[in-house]
Amino acid sequence: MTDNAAWGISSGRMMFFRRPFHEYSLRGRVTLSQMPLSVTAGFTAVLITGFFPQTLANPLFVSFLVSQALILVLCYAIPWHRLPFSTFLAIPLLDFVSITLGREGGQDSLMGIGLMAVFPVMWLCASGLYSRPSIVLSFFAPLGIIWVPLFIRGDVTGQDLGHSMLLPVMMLGIGVSVSVMTMSMVRQQNNLEEKDAQLQGSLRKSRRHEELLNTVLDTVHLGVLAVDAHGNDILMNRKQRANHRLATPHNVADPNETQLLVFEADRITPMPAELRPVRRAVLGETFTDYLAWLGGGSEQRAFTTSARAMKDADGNFTGSVIVFSDVTDLVNALAAKDDFVSNVSHEFRTPLTSILGYVELMLDDGDELPESQIGPLKIIKRNSERLLTLVSDLLSSRSGQLIVSPQAVDVAELVRASVSAALPKAGGSGVRLRADAPQRLDAHVDPARISQVLDNLVSNAIKYSPDGGDVVVSLSPEDGYMVCKVSDTGMGMSDKDQAEAFTKFFRSGSVRNTAIPGVGLGLPISKAIVEAHGGSFELQSAVGRGTTFTFRVPV
């Protein structure tokens, strides 16, 4: 739209103003409201000059033209914003007077000048101010335009008065219609303004919530990423932006998911695209503590990732939220701990092997040894073998592998042997220990390993019953499995401790505060042995009521 254009074009529609009417100042709106009548008066002057020049000699018609020009000047010159708001309604009232002069001075030359009253009528009724007086004026003001000159001349007849009623009635109909439409538009405008205010308030509230959310997310030390169903980023906090920069290759400015430096647990193998955390989340998967390494070289960091899906009201997948937690220090500490265990275990293995070798050589020459020395040598051998087994278990637990050598064995006999061996210890602790096993139950298992599991569970049951109680070791067949339960009525475990019970080196706080010995390896090793047999391990416990360990192994 050019500056010298006479018409404005907006949204593909023609309109008279360069901008919406309500955006003009009050002075501009008053001037524009008067403009249609002024333009019509100017057009009337042109017609009179061209076809009825003698009418210009009529002082009333000239007064009409002059008054219209003066009224237009007043519309622009008066500072309406400094006056009471409804003051501008004086302009349409002056228009009625001006139109009266024009009709009386030009009716012999040009018919219909009185119809110009429609402009002030519409102005009054469309203003929305004093609607009832405006409707009344829409009838009586046009009526006055006709009747006042009749009464001034004095030649009034009933026929003249009746003949003049059509124009006022028409103006009244127009006024009522305009007033009704105006009131309807005002109500709609008020409703729109109210809704706009509500929307603005909701928008401000939403922005405050967004600012609060962004502040909270930027405060936490976790990387938070939200993606839509197509994998497009919706939200990324400050920490996650740093994680993204860490995983970005140096020669790629804006990498996609497959180009990011994401590696598996060995820190070397690139993680396949379909296994990467964000891709899994976009596919709708839910997971927790999924380990991945981001970045390369000395800057590489370990992250555990968790994802939760977002769904709409209909249950349709709309995206996911993925959380990245930096666990590099923890992973390094666990690796250092495993290395330490491995190194210490290797250092123990060599002298223990030598001790066992020499003890066995000495026992082979038992005939030449006095009886008083044979007993201690057997004790040394038994404990050395136990230490060597523990060292082997430490090494196996570090690598996550335990070697089992299954063979046909009577498990019921293993249960009774384990209970018999623990009876002296149970008696010394005031614990009533008994076995509940069938006469015979054959299974294809590693007898030494299953005995190790039984010894660990029975020993724990006695240790964690410091005030005495009952310990029962039961064995039964069940759907192709042998099921063994070790139950006690001792201290019991909290839900939190149960969740960590099979973690290597874990000991609960209540146990650490007592004199009960242990290193926290018995249960992890026992669980590994059972799983190496293709079985499962379960735990049920309640604080102050006791604990039951159950393991199932295929027969």
Amount of beta strand = 15-25%
Instruction: Give the class from helix and strand content and strand pairing.
Output: alpha+beta
Q: How many helices?
A: 16
Instruction: Please count the beta strands (DSSP E, at least 2 residues each).
Output: 15
Q: Which regions are unreliable across 5 or more consecutive residues at pLDDT < 50? A: 1-16
**N-to-C terminal Cα separation, in Å?**
91 Å
Largest sheet: 6 strands, antiparallel
Helix content: 40-55%
How large is the radius of gyration? 50 Å
Written description of the protein model:
It is a single chain. This protein has about 550 residues and is of the alpha+beta class. It has 16 helices and 15 strands. The chain has helices at about 25-50, 60-75, 90-105, 120-125, 130-155, 160-165, 165-220, 240-245, 275-280, 330-365, 370-400, 410-430, 445-465, 495-500, 510, 520-530, and strands at about 10, 15, 225-230, 235, 260-265, 285-295, 300-310, 315-325, 405-410, 430-435, 440-445, 470-480, 480-490, 535-540, 545-555. The strands form four sheets. The protein has a six-stranded antiparallel β-sheet, sandwiched between helices. A five-stranded mixed β-sheet has the order 10-12-13-15-14, with helices on one face. It has a two-stranded antiparallel sheet with strand order 1-2. Helix 3 runs antiparallel to helix 4 (about 120-125), helix 5 (about 130-155) runs antiparallel to helix 7 and helix 10 (about 330-365) runs antiparallel to helix 11 (about 370-400). It is rod-shaped. Mean pLDDT is about 85; it is low at about 1-15.
